[in-house]
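Consider the following input, taken from an annotated entry for Fe-S cluster protein (Chlorogloeopsis fritschii PCC 6912).
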Amino acid sequence: MATWQCVKQCGACCHLDPAYRPDLDEYLSPEEMELYLSMVGEGGWCVNFDRTTRECRIYPYRPRFCRVEAEVFEDMYGICPEELNDFAIECCQEQIEGVYGDRSLEMLRFNQAVGYIYKEG
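Applying the prediction step yields:
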C-alpha cells in the first residue's frame, strides 16, 4: 500500500498560480484567499519558495492551506482522515504532473518515496 509523504526539494505544491487552481474560493476563506494571492510571485511560484534550494523559507510557519494534515483536509475539502492518504497521493501526483510532467524526475521520486506502483489498464 502506498503511503503519502512529502518529498523534499520537490516544490510542486509551491506553484500557486491561481489560473491552475480555479476552485480556490470553494475551500479558502476570504482571509485565506487574500493571503494566498499575496503569496503568488513570479511565474506563479510562492514568494516563500527558494527556487535555488527548492525549499520553503517559512515551512514551520506556513499557512493552514499549505499543510497536509487530517484536520485541515477534513475542514477544507471534506476528506475524512481514512481517505487522506489516497487523496493526498492523488493531489500530489496531479500537481507534480502539471508543474513538471508525468515522466519527470520529481514524479519518479514521489512515486518511489510513497511506494506507488503504476498499474496499466
